[in-house]
């Protein structure tokens, strides 16, 4: 089985197993490789982190399809664990949704979510969101399902209606998105543990995702507690971005203050350890494998 | 199914080359066994230049992915001269396969490749290294690697046969 097929199949099995899949959002390929090396079973490529990493901009619908797709592709190519993707609103109308699905499936994503915000969207935990009529995402879900080539490529509906119309409306919308074909359900930004519980009660047999944003609308909840509440996926969308930003701020402050990075060195990985982490020895070995002197053995008449 | 298999089952043995979406759409509707996404033609489309050596791997691969989403015909990807050394060729072959190339076409020019009648060619050792590297980079056993020898003007037919005999020893595969 080829890598893309294997990753999609593995992700679907994990999500449907009844256990919970925990994913960090990786801002870039290096972050994804770090998550993988410390035991992550899957990673997420999502808008807030990509917008920050690629553009140094907030998640306000400025980062587009091309940027998001390419970042996700870089992440997929760097790891051997499944990668799930944030496809925002599908980036336009139904033709755009079709292209979005075909493209993410072709690069090897294990699935995507599509949401019901008005474009340009906002991070789900920001104020001022505007929501499309339910029919808009219903039609997008139907097109997305028709466009995918493999059933293992999972389509998740995301509604942002909680903040605008309340939890009951968000649940009702999600029922319609599920009826339209969504494999997985994501109700963004519930505001309490009781709301998380109510979401699970509304969809007891459907894999659900919870989103844990530091300083967001939803209380930070341990993975095992979310599993007890019936969630099958938990995502940590901003933690790596915030950690990178904090560490780099401290580094720059140190350099500005001291004129050298020496005092910050204890917070860095070392030159040899980093080279080892990104596989320098393996690359050098491969380079040596095709050296001219090694090819001479095939040059006999 | 490999492109060689497709050839053996097809009455049409012509592979047209293209470098833009409209031409690929038109060719895709005709009965060709495959379409070559040619490096020079793609360079003309994307850069407005005739020199394929100006087009980087990432620029070409992005266009290949877009065309792969559209075309139903198998696409032959132009691996040029591997976009660098044998090490670059390994990663370039990976990239072009996952971008939708069902067959990769590697030439024996010096890097960077040029779109000229009498290009400078690389050494047999370098060609063998690149060929083995490209083969090692491929994941799908149905993806084929084809070699394009471009130095007849220089090494002559004798030199070409010599390179073929070396390649047959270095990489057990159908050419």
TrEMBL record, chain A:
GO MF annotation list: oxo-acid-lyase activity
InterPro entries in the cross-refs: ICL/PEPM, Isocitrate_lyase_ph_CS, Pyrv/PenolPyrv_kinase-like_dom, Pyrv_kinase-like_dom_sf
PROSITE patterns recorded: ISOCITRATE_LYASE (PS00161)
Protein name: Carboxyphosphonoenolpyruvate phosphonomutase
Keywords: Pyruvate
UniProtKB/TrEMBL annotation, chain B:
Protein name per UniProt: Carboxyvinyl-carboxyphosphonate phosphorylmutase
InterPro entries, alphabetized: Pyrv/PenolPyrv_kinase-like_dom, Pyrv_kinase-like_dom_sf
A single GO molecular function term of this UniProt record: catalytic activity
Pfam families: PEP_mutase
Protein origin, superkingdom: Bacteria
Organism listed in the record: Paucilactobacillus wasatchensis
Gene3D superfamilies xrefs: Phosphoenolpyruvate-binding domains
């Amino acid at each position: 089985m080829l890598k893309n097929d294997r990753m999609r199949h593995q992700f679907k099995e994990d999500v449907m197993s009844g256990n919970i899949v925990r994913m960090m959002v990786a801002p870039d390929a290096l972050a994804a490789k770090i998550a993988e090396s410390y035991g992550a079973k899957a990673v997420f490529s999502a808008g807030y982190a990509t917008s920050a990493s690629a553009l140094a901009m907030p998640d306000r619908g400025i980062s587009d399809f091309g940027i998001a797709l390419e970042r996700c592709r870089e992440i997929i190519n760097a790891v051997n664990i499944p990668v799930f993707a944030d496809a925002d609103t599908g980036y336009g109308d139904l033709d755009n949704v079709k292209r979005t699905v075909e493209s993410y499936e072709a690069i090897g994503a294990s699935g995507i979510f599509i949401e019901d915000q008005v474009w340009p969207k906002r991070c789900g935990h920001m104020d001022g969101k505007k929501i499309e009529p339910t029919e808009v995402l219903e039609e997008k879900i139907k097109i997305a399902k028709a466009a995918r080539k493999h059933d293992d490529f999972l389509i998740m509906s995301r509604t942002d209606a909680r903040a605008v119309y309340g939890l009951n409306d968000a649940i009702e919308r999600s029922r319609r998105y599920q009826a339209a074909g969504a494999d997985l359900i994501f109700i963004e930004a519930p505001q309490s543990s009781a709301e998380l519980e109510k979401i699970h009660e509304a969809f007891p047999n459907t894999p659900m995702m919870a989103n844990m944003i530091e300083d967001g609308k939803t209380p930070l909840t341990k993975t095992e507690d979310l599993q007890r509440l019936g969630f099958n996926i938990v995502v940590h969308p901003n933690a790596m971005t915030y950690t990178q930003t904090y560490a780099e701020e401290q580094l720059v402050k140190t350099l500005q203050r001291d004129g050298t990075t020496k005092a910050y060195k204890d917070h860095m990985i070392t030159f040899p350890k980093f080279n080892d982490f990104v596989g320098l020895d393996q690359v050098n070995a491969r380079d040596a494998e095709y050296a001219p002197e090694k090819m001479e053995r095939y040059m006999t008449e | 199914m490999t492109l060689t298999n497709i050839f053996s089952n097809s009455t049409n043995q012509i592979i047209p080359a293209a470098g833009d979406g409209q031409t690929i759409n038109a060719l895709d509707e005709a009965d060709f066994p495959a379409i070559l996404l040619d490096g020079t033609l793609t360079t003309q489309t994307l850069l407005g230049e005739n020199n394929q050596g100006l087009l980087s791997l990432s620029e070409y691969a992005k266009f290949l992915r877009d065309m792969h989403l559209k075309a139903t015909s198998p696409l032959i990807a132009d691996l040029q001269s591997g976009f660098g050394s044998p090490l670059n060729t390994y990663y370039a072959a990976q990239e072009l396969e996952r971008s939708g190339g069902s067959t990769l076409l590697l030439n024996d020019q010096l890097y960077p490749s040029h779109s000229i009648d009498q290009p400078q060619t690389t050494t047999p050792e370098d060609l063998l290294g690149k060929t083995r590297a490209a083969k090692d980079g491929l994941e799908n056993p149905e993806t084929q690697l084809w070699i394009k020898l471009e130095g007849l003007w220089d090494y002559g037919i004798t030199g070409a046969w010599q390179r073929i005999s070396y390649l047959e020893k270095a990489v057990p595969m159908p050419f």
